[in-house]
Write a structure and sequence with these properties.
The complex is a heterodimer of chains A (360) and B (73).
Chain A (H helix, E strand, L loop, with lengths): L7 H20 L10 H11 L13 H16 L6 E2 L3 H18 L3 H9 L4 H21 L8 E2 L2 H20 L8 E2 L2 E2 L12 H18 L3 H11 L3 H19 L17 H18 L3 H9 L3 H19 L11 H20 L5
Antiparallel strand pairs in A: 1-2, 3-4
Helix pairs in contact in A: 1-8, 1-10, 2-13, 3-7, 3-8, 3-12, 4-11, 4-13, 4-14, 5-6, 5-10, 6-9, 6-11, 8-12, 9-10, 11-14, 12-13
Chain B lengths: L2 E4 L7 H13 L2 E7 L2 H13 L3 E8 L2 E8 L2
Parallel strand pairs in B: 1-2
Antiparallel strand pairs in B: 2-4, 3-4
Helix pairs in contact in B: 1-2
Classes of the chains: A mainly alpha (360), B alpha+beta (73).
Amino acid sequence: MKNLLATKWGIIVVGIVIGVIASLLQLWGNPANMGICVACFVRDITGALGLHRAPVVQYLRPEIIGFVLGSFGAAYLFREFKPRVGSAPLVRFILGVFAMIGALMFLGCPWRALLRLAGGDWNAILGLLGLAFGIWIGTRFLKSGYNLGATHKTHTSVGWIFPVIMAGFLVLMLFNPKIAGEPQSGILFYSVEGPGSMHAPLIVSLFFGLVIGFLAQKSRFCTMGAIRDLILFKQTHLFSGIVGLAIAAFVTNLLVNQFNPGFAGQPVAHSMHFWNFAGMTLAGLAFALAGGCPGRQLFLSGEGDGDAAIFVIGMVAGAAFAHNFGLASSPAGATPAGMVAFVIGLAACLLIGFTMRDKI
Amino acid sequence: MDNIINARGLSCPQPVIMTVNEIKKVKNGTIVIMVDTDTAKENVSRASKAQGWEIANVEPEEDGYRVTITKED
């Protein structure tokens, strides 16, 4: 059977669907210009579990659970579920950590960068330029033989681990539901104020998470791949998907009055141009070296890729470091500790790029 | 003799990079690329077509596919 979603129009339609859903999720309660943000939402999950204690960003985002389980369902339905592990997991963990630290310096993953742009937040331009620059550095490494090595087929149950963890999170949420005005319910933390307190109803978030997970698995939607393939192969296939996302979110924002152009006073954003650029350069490089944006890593985790799951767990660790050590930016701007972490992260990623090459 | 590339187990974009490198090396003829995921199969096919090569055959085999691409002189 031909995979319609992996055709040019297929990927554009998937991008449009994601853009519209993201914009509507904001209307239904998610934070502004953050209908979907994989980095922010993984950070919120980290907080909900108490692995960091920043009170404004704690919520066990059902969209993320939906992404993994939707992809898991699609992979099983289309016989693409392939349990595999063993391509430099420790390196992928480290890349996940620094990808998250870079993304939280900018305040968003590539998806949110597009959504911020579509909402009129011009600071996103710096972030997207930084992202492209980071990915460009990554393509130089790819061209000179950078390779983390092959994965190996493994037991079916190994591929189930990450989806089962996500299903477990959902169960946790059902047994520890949000209590209005309370910062904690049973073992889970819930923000009372700030972005973590803003969310669409659980069932809505979960449903659309599942839809996106399903479509994205089948279409291979990837924001990092979009820019990478454009630079590396001059291929516009994946890129047309992210253009679809941005335009669809922009049009939907216009229709529901969510478009507010400008640099200053943008929601969950700051205007330190250099650090917006730098944060996403670090994130972009880490994504390129790991072979996928945070969203793609979730979808791959759902189809049995244990190394992608390790990257996601690295992002959880990165989010914990980012908030426990004061590395994450806030609307007030980037932090001095964050700047130090940026330098360390960039050095680590460059070292990975330079030393992990095949001879060609 | 066919040129065979074993890109099994390698994640995106390695199979495409290997294919494009081989295409640049041999200029024309037949190349067989072994991949283990549907994503890699699609990416390799798309990239080969973009380089002006034809997809002669996609043969499912145990744990993956054997993609044969050709280009005449």
